[in-house]
Write a structure and sequence with these properties.
Strand content: 35-45%
Strand order of the largest sheet: 1-28-27-26
Protein name: WG containing repeat-containing protein
Number of strands: 28
Oligomer: single chain
Radius of gyration: 19 Å
Shape: globular
Structural class: mainly beta
Largest sheet: 4 strands, antiparallel
Length: 358
Amino acid sequence: MTSKTETQSWLFRLIVGLTALAVAQPLFSQKIVIFDYPNSSDTHPTALNFKGEITGYYLASSTYHGFLRRPDGSFTSFDVPLPAGGFPSNAIPMDINDLGQITGFYAFEVQLRSFLRQPDGTIVQFEPPLSAPSRVTAQLQSNSYDKPICGGEDWWLSVAMNDAGQVVGSGPVSTAVASGFIRARDGSIKYFDAAPPSLGQQTCPQAINVWGQIVGYDNTFSAFLRERDGRITQFTLSDASETIPTAINFFGEVTGFYQDNTGFHGFIRHPNGVTISFDPAGSNATEPTAMNALGEITGFYSGMDGIAHSFLRKRNGTIISFDVQNSHGTFARSISLAGAITGEYFDGASYHGFIRKP
């Protein structure tokens, strides 16, 4: 088993090396490459790793399938195998780590269950435990300004993973509508709640870093940070009715969005608890979705024109807006350590993938 010291040393070397490479590269204009899974009607990238591998899902013949896009532009499609009985195989990938492992969920009958895809293509299915009937409907993230994904009822959903192979998500486990879970590399699963479980209680993890720190939100739409030892700190931004974390990086910095009486705003929370609010110029709603170890944040916002635009926030606070040309909405979903960004855009009729290269 790899020790924390060995993992820390390897990650620091990786960060230093890639940072030096990025600094050494000559400056050039940003380039956006658009792509679709062949013969698909919609393509939705959800995450990318430092190697430039992208995962996500596409729609074809009324069924969603997972995909892996390699840096050379080639694709592999994959589904979670299901028993015979007329149910189409499917997969909705949510995250990919730097080792090429992919996690997400799939549909079986009325249930949603989790999966882990290994780099060799092997797929491990998470069998949901027996659970108490839930009282609310599970949530899926929309393209604009809705609470991110959470389990519930028959939905047992993995949403994120780290380079140590740990997977986090949520689902109905006890009297709580949704408890959080963390799946270790050996397949063992631990459950946790942001507050004592009760009817209506939700614990909705959204991200995990390599040290095992987890961020998410609960049914009161307050944020929580769970430390590796299980300690949980809940926090909200001043005057916020909702605080929704969406990412945590190597150094324990957290980003996400909150809502107050003026709308949605982005935030970054430092490990010492100091929180900074931010919005791109001309924004009336801001939703950060991802952050890398260098503190660069990406996401999207609604402009005064009513269209979603994407942004990159540099560590020094500078915010750069960008769009896929002629799009009716550009939604950044993930950023790599090297500063590459992937996501989807809407052309007025369907969704397509993009990658913005640094």
